[in-house]
Structure formats: C-alpha cells, structure tokens
Amino acid sequence: MVTGNGNGTVGYSITPGKYGQNFKTFRSATNQAGLRLVNVERYEERTVYHDFFTQYGSTRLFVEQRPPGYGIVAHRGIKAICQMAGIKDIHVKLEGSNNIQSLTKAFMLGLLRQKTHQVLADEKQLHLIELRPENDYFPRVLASPSNSKVRTQAEIGHNEILDFEMISFEGNLPIPRKAKKNPWEGQDGWDKYLRRGWVSASHASVRERMRVENGEDYGAVRSHLVDKYPECQEPNMREYFINRWKSKYGVEQE
Hints:
Layout: E1 2-4, E2 9-12, H1 23-35, E3 38-39, E4 52-56, E5 59-65, E6 72-73, H2 76-85, E7 90-96, H3 100-113, H4 117-124, E8 128-130, E9 140-143, H5 164-168, H6 188-196, H7 203-214, H8 237-249
Parallel strand pairs: 6-7
Antiparallel strand pairs: 1-2, 2-3, 4-5, 5-7, 8-9
C-alpha cells in the first residue's frame, strides 16, 4: 500500500492479505502507510535531484533524471510510488528480481539517500555543472561550495573519481541490452536491398536542409539543374489543389 499527497510526501506499508473480503486488511495497510510518511527531495518539484543506483537483495535499480514532459518509465510499483510522491519525469531500469517488496524498499532507500546539489558541491568542494542534451550541452552551474573555497587542479587527487555517473551509480553500470541480430544480414538478397536504397538514403536530410536554407515557399526544394530544367523542383501542391477544385466546381481559373 502506497499513500502520499503528490507533493513530496509518501509512505508505504507491506501487509499480507488474501483476495476477496479483506477490507480489514486494506484499512490496516492504509493506516500503516499513513504512519510511515517521509519527505522526498525533488528537483524542480517534478523529478529526482540526480541519477542514482540503489539495491535491496537481488533487486538493482538505476534511476535517471529526465527532462520535463518525459513521464514515468518504470515498473508499475515504482510508478505508483512516483505518482504519490509527485515525481513526474523519471526513468528507472530494473535488473535482477522484480519482487514487489524488494523493489519498493530499494526505490524508497534510493529516494531517501539522494543528495541535493548543494550537498554534493560541499562534499567535493567543487562547482556542480550540468550538461544536458535537451539544452544543447550548454553548461549550467547548479551549486557552488557554501564556504566559497573551490579546490584547484593541484589539490584534486590523481586517483579521485570526478565522473558524476560513476559517483551517482556507485561504480555500477547497467547491463547493455543486446540488439537482435538480423537473420538476413550477409546474404545476397539483403545486400541487394541495401544497394537499392542508396539512391534515396539521404533524401529526407537534404529536403530538410533545403527548407531550412530556402524557407517553406514553393521552390525551396529543388535541384542544382533547375535553371536549365525548370521541372527539377517540387510541385506547387497548393496551386495544384486550388486549380483542381476550381475545375471540379466550374470556377474560372485566373
């Protein structure tokens, strides 16, 4: 049973109960969850403060922060906890056992162990800078040491780990997903299929680049031989459909 206010406060309980007429167990689980409420730190009131690794028993969780609008991509048990805690954008990779008790305990432990940006900056005595792909990897300073003393390059040990992913995941990395092998790869028919598509492989990117450079008007997508052969450009579909409509309803064309 998970309960919360959807604004950073969440609690859970694990109570055994049989299917059917178990309203007493349901009420007991709800009451126990309400007595175990804890406050969870949230970044921008929507996601976790940083990526982290957590485990309980044989359950391993890799929790990653996500941009606004991403949603909750996780196990249904973790999704219920996130909804009660007010976490809206998160990605959780599960490895090992998917036992609901171990999964719940592992995720709650990870939420309680996460550190704010200011705590991380004070521990390392360094600036904490964020580089995210949705911001074109533009550096953004999230926190600085509160005592304004930043270590220099000479003061940083040569064996000290500064990779944030290794720090947050505690030296653990998720197992990469194996891609499915194409059964037709290496055969003559597959090679012929690939060669057949070489002619139009880059058409989409070229059309996109032409529209960026020349605008959305008619003639933006055209060949370099358009001066000699005027037909080497995209058709004016707007004018085509207007003339077709006029001819259908007997309207005189201009």
